[in-house]
Amino acid sequence: MFRFAKAPACLLIGALLGTSLPSPANEFNDLPEIGTAAAATLSIEKELQYGDAYMRMIRAKMPVITDPLLSEYIQDLGHRLVANASDVRTPFSFFMIQNRAINAFAFFGGHVAIHSGLFLYARSESELASVMAHEIAHVTQRHLARSMEDQAKKSPATLAALIGSMMLAIASPEAGMAAIHATTAASAQGQINYTRSNEQEADRIGIATLAKSGFEAQAMPRFFGRLADQYRYASKPPPMLLTHPLPESRITDSRSRANQYPSRQMSESERYHLARARIVARYAGLDSKAALGWFDREMKSADAVVRTALNYGKALVYIDNDNYPQAHALLDPLLASDPGNRFFIDSATDLDLKQKQYDKAIRRLETALKANPDNKVLRLNLAHALQEAGRMNDSVPILTRYTYDNPDDSNGWHMLSQAQATLGRRDAELAARAEVLALRGSWEEAIQLYIQASQIVDVDSLDQARYDARIDQLRLARQRAAEL
User: Boundaries of each Peptidase M48 domain copy (predicted)?
Assistant: First the structure.
């Protein structure tokens, strides 16, 4: 699959706000209705606005992984959990950041970020899901807003600074905690204590969501216990332990709550292991020798499902290093055994395109789309294959529809801008580039590109009217962002 260069990591995010499931354990689900107590400080509508603005800054400043296959997997897993969560009041969006540090965080508006390093540490899909369920609980219980309300009662004069520092602490724990400590000592200590209470609440609600969703409830205390044991005496713990402290009392409490649910013997999730293998092959920062060595070491103790994923990962390494015979030897049997698997289709398409077998790749994707016509991964792959074959004009209708259906996916806009540029359609190229900038919160640059596009097309044309209307929308979005 096509891959775009990632933006360099930069965590100057504090400026966003400036300074200013069935089981015998039902009793554990009967929690007090405290998740909505923060409405007096921050409405759901305002949370959504902050979340949208923060997400745009993350796209601009952090190495967000836009890989369609990984995005599809993490979204599917996240929404499986959300479907079984309580007190859901906002839409949810899940995304990945290319970072080997063990971390996950959630922020306003139902946005949940997963570091790619978490896949390397979690040993099963249930363990990964346990972290995500915990973060979902932070959102549904409105912990960030409640923290703000608590601080407003204690020290109103420092609320503005605490808003910015708490948002920064979500993504950059060390910088955020430093910012919190830059306020009064009393406010800082109150914030830390309130966070510990939030963590315990997120654990018990997350465990309920995890069990109701069909995962192992014991996965959460198992994962957190292993993490605490490994880094107990570390001089520099991973970011997750800075924002999610793991005292023994918390681990004991989560284990006790998880043990109230029936123990499940879960079979290995092939999709989880395929996603994990893809991350090792392409997003772990390993060279080909190191990646192949990792796969070979894991192979020694792997069962059949995991071995399939490991062979898939090795095939990716071979594809990326132009070793086509080795890639075919591993990938062809996988595709023959499961021809509808999108991980295998995607990689087989990569292999076709690398060998300039464009028609073969296009036929493969068109066949797959007949069975799953609305799939985002397949639609983007087909557009990419058409572009590689020099059929830019054929890719435009696919991408135009795709960007209409998925306006927040920069992949579609990037590809559409490239196609329009090749076809000499300057106005359409500028418009697509403007949408990429808007997704990153670069409002002024986006507006200027749309103004240029409007000036190129015929006066009073439908295109000019469309561009001018979009300029008005972007100006309003810019004003709203400034008002935050």
Answer: 70-255
